[in-house]
Specification:
By secondary structure, the chain is an all-alpha fold. The chain is 42% helix and 0% strand. The chain starts with 23 loop residues before the first helix and ends with a helix. This is BrnA antitoxin family protein. Pfam families: BrnA_antitoxin.
């Protein structure tokens, strides 16, 4: 009997969960723009690190 695996497909390049302490003003600024603030922080960090 074959069962299909449920859930999401595995990502080719999965994100890594980290705990990061940021200034409250930084978090508030990113959250104020709209949903997707974590993605925007990731993009800002990639840019700062010279990865984009």
């Amino acid at each position: 009997m074959c069962k299909s695996a449920g859930g999401r497909q595995k990502l080719e390049n999965p994100k890594v969960a980290v705990s990061l302490r940021l200034d409250p003003e930084v978090v508030a600024r990113f959250k104020a723009d709209s949903p997707g603030w974590q993605t925007r922080i990731n993009e800002a960090l990639r840019h700062a690190a010279g990865l984009s």
